[in-house]
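Researcher: Please generate the 3D structure of the following complex. Treat every line as part of one assembly.
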Amino acid sequence: MSTPLTAEIAHHLAARARWRPAEIAFWLIALASVIALPGWHLLLTQVAILGLFALSLDLILGFAGIISLGHAAFFGFGAYVAGILAARGLVAEPMLALVISGVAAALLGWATSFLVLRGSDLTRLMVTLGLALVLYEIANRLVWLTGGADGLSGFAMAPVLGWFDFDIAGHVGYAYSLAVTFVLFLLARRLIFSPFGLSLRSLKENALRAAAIGIPPRRRLVAIYAVAAGYAGVAGALLAQTTQFASLATLDFERSADVLLALIIGGAGYLYGGLIGAVAFKLMQEWISGVTPQYWGFWLGLVLVLIVLVGRAPLQYVRAFLPRSHLASAALRSGRG
Amino acid sequence: MLTVLFDGIAYGMLLFVLSAGLAVTLGVMNFVNLAHGAFAMAGGYVAVLLINRLGVPFFAALPLVFVATAAIGGVLERTLYVRVYAKSHLEQVLFTIGLVFMAVAAVDYTVGSGQVFLELPEMLKGQFHVLGAGIGKYRLAIIVLCGLITVALQYALARTRFGSRLRAAVDNPTVARGLGINVGRVFAVTFAVGSGLAGLGGALGAEIVGLDPVFPLKYMIYFLIVVTVGGTSSMTAPFAAAILLGLGDVAGKYYVPQLGAFVIYTMMIAVLIWRPQGLFARGATR
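Model: Done. Output below.
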């Protein structure tokens, strides 16, 4: 089976998937923040969670070209699953609850992918938006299960690995969130550099030709959509576990818009965009809402408008430090859909 | 029963006037304008300013509202929107969401976050009874006004020279340009009129759907439903969709209040799955 051609392709793929110094530096900095920035851990937890959420959106937007206006549906679903598991005392162990939430969200993503993957961009926008609204309404109505508008709160999590208890300063919460984000990032990286990831990219570039060389477009998109939904669910579950609160805000339209903005700031289609965007987004939010807490939305909107009108050219230099080759050009293209 | 029907029709006609502009920009010019509700909100606040603060009579204020929001729409179209027409759907989404966030915060800053109400003239308050159904005078006025607007729109599109230019510009911009039609100006005027109508709808609807700074976000989905469910083959399709939506929403809230807005969203998703091009589309569009 190992012809010279397949050997060469395998060699190329392996070379592309090699870790670059900037990537290692990125994760070393993230690791260092656990020790060096203890006072920032509550904020950094939010960054890690948003980063994971944006990574999840990147999987479908950056690598499969699906625009979603309702990605918060899976985030909120994961948050509620984790919250209900903990509040009902069904699963107290956080890691196990996380896995269950992720799988549940992935199943939801798989089930809804058949609705989303029809029609044009516009239909997709509407269906994703509509699904998030439906979930919001359900969570709002099922008061006995979700607490309705008050949300789910007052549940205690068991210590992580039976050892590390969640503390009020968020040290354990941050280490936990960062570790989960890192592990899932590794998986996503593996996925994107695999033949599966390659087939996704070919689909995005030209679905017709990809189908002609034997790649089934629908099955690939369904698969990546379910995976991304699972990632979003884990991010939501992380939020519920670290804040010990699951509310309707996790399903809000604004959450879908925030994650889209975070990803766009960082740039879609090269895996690090969501993480970098999350750092930039949260820092910006922290800074602006420190100045004008109520009107942060205005500046958020202004950034969005400027990104579209001016483009992300000023941000391109960030990318110079990150994985190159096909990914950079794919990221540029994905900015334009 | 009749009251529900009546209220539903009034609500539906209101939705149609609110979304008519979007039917053209989104449906016809293929531009995803999520900020359409911001124009409606602007119209609502202009009306509140004129009527409550400056004491302009209700019916005199309405044309002013239309002109004011049309002007805002026209200026924004020429300065900002025109740069985004050719960009991808993703960028249009980002751009218009950005505009919505800015509008929401700006109104919050200048007017405050509370809900505001329009002072109606005495003659439009109260209701009377016909065949046992309570008919709100204000809702009746809305039906009459929106009906007139609908007829005028249909006439303008089907019978006037501008209407035929617009249809030509939409069907094939390149050929329309070749015939000497200034496509950019036609689109700009259309956008301005659409914004003006949205503003008028916002002013008329302030009493029924309420008016607060998050209006554009709250009603975004409704406008989008009208346009996508209706499809964009003609003006009558979004009109029918708006009436259906209005009836569905009012009936849903009246008979099964515990389900809330659930009915509408489910209806929309079902229609989009069943007919992705819209309920009344004639075969494939673009």
